[in-house]
Amino acid sequence: xxxxxxxxxxxxxxxxxxxxxxxxxxxxxxxxxxxxxxxxxxxxxxxxxxxxxxxxxxxxxxxxxxxxxxxxxxxxxxxxxxxxxxxxxxxxxxxxxxxxxxxxxxxxxxxxxxxxxxxxxxxxxxxxxxxxxxxxxxxxxxxxxxxxxxxxxxxxxxxxxxxxxxxxxxxxxxxxxxxxxxxxxxxxxxxxxxxxxxxxxxxxxxxxxxxxxxxxxxxxxxxxxxxxxxxxxxxxxxxxxxxxxxxxxxxxxxxxxxxxxxxxxxxxxxxxxxxxxxxxxxxxxxxxxxxxxxxxxxxxxxxx
Amino acid sequence: xxxxxxxxxxxxxxxxxxxxxxxxxxxxxxxxxxxxxxxxxxxxxxxxxxxxxxxxxxxxxxxxxxxxxxxxxxxxxxxxxxxxxxxxxxxxxxxxxxxxxxxxxxxxxxxxxxxxxxxxxxxxxxxxxxxxxxxxxxxxxxxxxxxxxxxxxxxxxxxxxxxxxxxxxxxxxxxxxxxxxxxxxxxxxxxxxxxxxxxxxxxxxxxxxxxxxxxxxxxxxxxxxxxxxxxxxxxxxxxxxxxxx
Lengths: 304, 245
Known about the structure:
The structure holds two protein chains of two kinds. Chain A is of the alpha/beta class. Chain A is about 35% helix and about 30% strand. Chain A starts with a strand and ends in a 7-residue tail after the last helix. By secondary structure, chain B is mainly alpha-helical. The interface between A and B is medium-sized, with 27 and 24 residues.
């Protein structure tokens, strides 16, 4: 099956400022693709070009085979969009907004079910201007899904949500995805990307650094595991350093700290078991996507 | 379907904002009642064929109300939507500019219909001002006037860079438009040059058409075609230059 979204050599500048230098991406039917990168990396500009609300300077984009600028009608029919800064009329009520937006589509989703699913049922008669940030965010997710899209682009999905609302939203996204909707998720939350995405595109300075599964990324970054334990009886370092999966052994007091690749833990526990040593207070620090990001781009993600 | 839903929402919002009921209907109606209560204005004047100043002011007030909705309310609302990102949000849906603009036009037109019916009723029953003799001609003239003025409003929205400038342009334009409708000097009393210009303004053409209807004729082609021309040209330019953000 051809990809749902194809971006080839996208380039976009604002005056002298190059927002997107050269980005190529494909999104396959049914997957959740994360677009991850620091602020100003070009994530939002890229998806805005895909949505057809910004004209690229160079490059080619196809959404379900259509050009986002030329074939507005088809693209808007297939694509549900959550904008970072789209607003509604202050005095429009939640239910009115959903009903209105559902009327724009020929085969809309059931807006009442969406409203309930996003925990907005008791806010049906509340005006947009009186909603909290999190409620506005949930409404904007509902509006992205109300047209029953084949692809949904969600920009900064859970920014501004409290942790509980964030987890609820993730559940909702998993539910949407299980119905076969392809999702593009722009985010700078590592946890979100690790939990939801099949593949993650790391974007930095207007270019794609790499595209891989979350696990693949940590492997690509060759981040070592750190295993830490207190042996039940003294142990010779050479027992561990000779293991091919272990790169170094250090000691802090009676703590042994072993660095090594993803198989190191198995090797170490096997050797310890063989020598009838119990690893007390065993702790393993898993490499996170965040570590991978820092390793691959040499940059930290912005904290907020 | 979606156009009907949009119109419905726009009317609800206009009621909640109170822009429609207060500025579109209430304020001009109060003004009409105040003017009607001034005895001098209701003296029949032989030079106006036995009509009073107030009789002549009723159609002017109808235009006053249309111009207020079209030149001030409509551009302010639409360019406000643009600034707040309401249009940007709609742009990602299949709704398209034509339906968004149509909904604005129909919503404002609805307010204007309520207003004109209220005006004519108050003028008739409270102050004894006769209804136009040629009702069909009046309806046609009124609809074309509304179309012409509202499309000027759309044009302002399309060309003005923001909400502030849109309101400013609308308000400034409002004065010459009302001048040529004869709000301050009746068209008949204007110098020839101004009177000729007036015939080719939307408000002047509207007044000429209204007057014909009051006198029992169907309005002539010249004012009606002038109004149609404004409506078609301004709407076409407004759609061509429509900006979502």
